User: Fold this.
Amino acid sequence: MKSALRRRVAATLLTGLGLTVLGGCAGLQFGMKKPEVTVVDIRPLDANLLEQRFVLNLRVTNPNSVEIPIEGLTFRVDLNGQQFATGVSNKPVLIPRLGEGLVEVTATTSLPRLLRQFRELSKMRDKVEYRLRGRLVTGSFGGFDFDQTGEVGVPKGFGETGRRESAPPTERF
Assistant:
């Protein structure tokens, strides 16, 4: 009798564990690959003393043979290993199968975070390391996490203090 009870409890636990694992994967069809998210463009939107906003265009590439309906996304941008900006979007976009789509989102940062990055640039860095991470929210697939890193070169002269050797005086007659 005790062994039958133990088998029932074990079967119930295994069933619960199996359903939990399947529930965690419910958003992904078997063999489904994660879409790739990359930054295409960044431009300033507006700014005031305490808050600055930027428009980011993100390219979502779908390597799957089924289209992915994106209902929205959440994201965070880190620069030089430090949090810089965050954002959310509820704009729906349909990423075609074996295709790509652009998603325009707004990123918000604060004055202290912006000033920290200007200080980093003033250290004569020749590149800025970035990390974009977040989650694509989908209806039928549950969602996909993304995490992209890279670096961008800083143009020569950007961040320099503007000090130049003074030219020798010239005389005119």
